[in-house]
Amino acid sequence: MKKRIWDRIDKFYRDSFILTLSNMTTGVIAFVFSLLLSRKLGAEGLGLYGLVMPVYGLLLCITSDGIITAISRISTVYFNRGEYKNLDRTLSTVFVPVTFQACGIALLVLVFHRPLAVYVVRDARAAGALMALSPALVFVPLSAVIKGYFYGMGRYRITASIDILEKLFRVAVLSGAAALLKPEGVSGTVATACLALTVGELISFIALFTSYRIKRSRLKGGTGRIKSRIQLVFDVMVISVPLCLNGIVSSVISTISTLIVPRRLMAAGFTYRDALALIGRFGGMALNISTLPSIIINSMLTVLVPDMSLNISKKDYWSAEERIAQVLRISGVIGTATAIVCFLIPGTLGRVFYQRNDLAAMIRFSAPICLMTFISSPTFGILNALGRQNILLRNSLINSLQNLALTAVLVGIPSLNIYGCGLSISITSATSLVLNLREIRKVCEIRIDIHDIAILALSGAASWLAALLAGNALLAAPPAVRMAGVVIACFGTMAGISSYAFKLRAEY
Question: I want to staple 455 with a disulfide (CB 3.0 to 4.6 A). Which of 394, 473, 488, 501 is the partner?
Answer without folding.
Answer: 501
